[in-house]
Amino acid sequence: MTINNNFGREPPSPKTGALDADYGHHPIHDRAQRPLQVIVIGAGPSGIAMLIELLKIPFLTIRCFEKNPDVGGTWLETRYPGAACDVASHAYQYSFCSKTDCFAPAEEIGDYFTSVAKKYGLYNHITFHSRVTSAEWDELKAQWKVMVESDTREAAPETFVADVLINAGGILNDWAWPEIDGLQDFKGHRVHTATWDSTIDLKDKTVAVIGSGASSIQVVPSIQPVAKKVDVYVRSPTYILPTVGFGFESSTFNESYSESDMQNFSTKPAYYKQFRKRIEQQMNENFSNSSKTSTEQIEARLWAENMMKKAILSPELQKKLIPSWELGCRRLTPGLPYLNAVQQPNVNVIRDGIKRILEGGIETVNDQVIEADVIICATGFITSFSSRFNIVGRYGRTLKEMWKDRGAEAYLGTAIADRDRLTGRVTAVWPGSSIHFMEMVETPRWEDFEIQYVHSNPFRFMGNGFSQRETNGADLTYYLDQMRE
Ligand SMILES: Cc1cc2nc3c(=O)[nH]c(=O)nc-3n(C[C@H](O)[C@H](O)[C@H](O)COP(=O)(O)OP(=O)(O)OC[C@H]3O[C@@H](n4cnc5c(N)ncnc54)[C@H](O)[C@@H]3O)c2cc1C
Ligand SMILES: NC(=O)c1ccc[n+]([C@@H]2O[C@H](COP(=O)([O-])OP(=O)(O)OC[C@H]3O[C@@H](n4cnc5c(N)ncnc54)[C@H](OP(=O)(O)O)[C@@H]3O)[C@@H](O)[C@H]2O)c1
Q1: Is residue 286 one of the residues assigned to a domain?
Q2: Residue range 378-389: mean pLDDT, rounded
Q3: How far is the C-alpha of 403 from the C-alpha of 17, rounded, in Å?
Q4: Helix, strand, or coil here: 131?
Q5: Fewest C-beta atoms under 10 Å: which of 30, 279, 426, 473?
């Protein structure tokens, strides 16, 4: 099956014929007639959910390759001080696997995903320390050829084939040093938030933190009490707000759950479900704020500005940290502890750009040299979407090549057309609410696809005229179950 997109040029047909021999001897929808091989790349939260669903389907051979030693993705790798989920953990768990006690630090979230993977027996299907290095579509076989390298064994890369390849490699998994002149010359300790060095001791150190994204917003309040001085280099400000989804009245405060709340969460499933629904209802209600000229945007922006003004006492610091653009142009980040930390006497917020890094510190574009013992790069990830390994699709075209000029483009964010055909290009963020997205992808729109059959007889699935029900002794009056009495 391909996206309807070949401008009248037919790709070569897959070989057919071999499967004809057993034509007509099986009941309809007999999956045993075409067992499939599926490869999942990555065992983070997405890979785990995918594997759980795949295991429900019979006649699949499922393989998951994970470069890390365990499951969890972000939550296994991220260990900077303060790393935690910044929404309520009750809204950061699978709908089908509740964890009613509070958890939020990265380690605990990691443990949650490990426990889910164990509960659903996923470990047998995951090969760890195994990095996918390329995936190439074979048009004739209608299969992917996937190269996998072991990170622990000195062995040649192995090749696997898959009828279906699912990339769950994460869009925030490919960290990189920022491109700043002289970064390599720095003689102090240099660390990136995405690959934290747990041996680093910040006590009494002068620390430069580059970046003002969610990682910086969590790391700064965690190191401020320990370090002698913290200089935070903020290239662009961002809206920093109270945490959404914590407590029952979370838009204005962040109250801890009481003992009785916790008791109710763990002993009354219906109560817990209602509680989760309230959190997510609140999160889902806010989408109209993202519309540039809406009243909701104007009101929400005013609310956010006032929130920040209330939290930041100095007008000078307010000017440095309150964005001048609409709410939602950049990720809204919960982080009142950050706003508190940057007002402490040992913290400076520096809005001057960085010219270069010297052996002993940072030189700003205003030629000011600010010394540092440690530089923390909270500068994020490569988010090109074109994947860190080579993906070669139809006609030998690589994803990197296809997306070189115009950036990432995908059909509903789920499949990639082999040629430019789509209109209304959207990059990264879905142009609707989360609910809109879920409804949009709920059922496949087969009319958007051009289907090519692997078998020469597209009606082969109809089989020998019998239903599965008739061959396995099932209820043959199932259609009366909905009968009104
Ligand atoms: C510091 C941080 C905090 C975050 N906090 C939140 C939050 O509070 N709320 C929220 O909703 N989201 C948060 N996110 C986003 C978070 O990344 C996602 O919620 C979630 O982890 C995405 O899951 P994933 O499985 O798609 O990707 P990941 O968690 O990134 O997992 C991808 C997996 O694929 C593996 N992989 C990648 N490439 C290969 C390859 N070539 N071969 C083999 N394996 C490969 C990786 O090793 C990894 O295990 C945060 C992200 C970061 C970085
Ligand atoms: N708990 C959480 O929920 C949580 C925590 C951490 C991360 N995350 C997720 O991870 C994503 C990435 O977060 P992140 O904070 O790691 O990265 P980020 O949001 O991409 O922020 C990177 C920061 O580094 C700055 N920067 C990058 N290169 C620079 C340079 N050369 N000079 C000066 N400044 C530079 C950026 O400035 P500009 O803005 O000017 O480019 C930005 O402020 C987030 O969007 C979020 O989805 C979530």
Answers
A1: no
A2: 87
A3: 37
A4: strand
A5: 473
Span from the CA of 371 to the centroid of ligand 1 (angstroms): 34
- Lowest-confidence segment of 22-31, 219-228, 317-326 by average pLDDT: 22-31
H/E segment holding residue 30: none
CA of 380 to the centre of ligand 1 (A): 13
Residues 370 and 388 in one domain: no
Which of 142-146, 260-264, 292-296, 460-464 is most confident? 142-146
Query: Of all atoms in ligand 2, which is nearest to the CA of residue 212?
Result: 43
Strand ranges in 180-313 using DSSP code E only, listed in sequence order: 189-192, 206-210, 229-233, 240-241
**Structural domains of the chain, count:** 2
> pTM higher than 0.85, yes or no?
yes
Q: Residues 198, 343: one domain?
A: yes
- Residue of minimum CA distance from atom 9 in ligand 2: 214
Residue 292 Cβ inside 6 Å of ligand 2? The answer reads no
Helix axis angle for 106-119 and 45-54, nearest 10°, is: 10
> Where among 334, 362, 377 does a domain terminate?
377
CATH number, domain of 360, equals 3.50.50.60
